[in-house]
Amino acid sequence: MLFEDGYFVLNSYWDNKTFAYICDCYNNILEDANQLADFVKQSKSTFSDYYKENKSLIVVPENNNTTICRFEYIIGHLPEFKKISDNLCLELKNLTGKQFRLFKDKCNIKSPGGGAFPPHQDAPAYINFTPTYHVTAAILLDAATEENGCLEMATNYLKTHTNKKTDIVTKVGTRPIFEYYIGGERNGTIIDEIQNQFSWEKQILDANNVVFFDSFIPHQSKINLSKSHRRIIYLTFNLEDEGDHYENYYEKKRHEYSNPIFHIATPYST
Ligand SMILES: O=C(O)CCC(=O)C(=O)O
Question: Which atom of ligand 1 lies closest to the CA of 219?
């Protein structure tokens, strides 16, 4: 079975030059993201209205404050970043024997005091699109610690026996989707009764580690209690033979930015 434990980690992944290049790309895109956010605020419009009219980056402010906690559509905005994505796609082929292609891409910026992601699976966010199975590569731009809200993976999820799940048939086998809250503040969060049954393994990692995890492993991360940002770029891939959905995904997201399916267990505002 692919990803027996749902995830794996590769240490010191990029050479120094490539890692510096990735950080430069991050800085350039963040500048554009800040400009976009300023423009939306000054025009007294909403992000939701802006995206309906503009095929742009998607910039997500955190809850009701002005801090940006995420930007998306990285390769759409900066096509040269595709070489990074292609490299990870090749790595995934070597690791799994399967050919993948990019489905979506984003960067989460967990600022001091911000950014808890309650326990969730990513699969519910993708079930409205054709591909059945996804793998995400997390590129750590900063070290992840317990203090700054590292990722935590539910490593025993395939052994959790409960009637509060639906088995989904994917291209690579059957996987569970656990019952989760729908709508409201806890949208996408796995119900308490189930999340308490998982063993949560903290991913204490260095900058320049890459973590691959599939769309079914439950994961979470806590608030950032440190004084620095914790930044991770996430590139999500679907199986190549399940089609190319990148532009279609973002077109739908721009037109339905407030739709809860695009905000599974995420701190955000419109
Ligand atoms: O960046 C994190 O800490 C968690 C991110 C996450 O789970 C998500 O974006 O779905």
Answer: 7
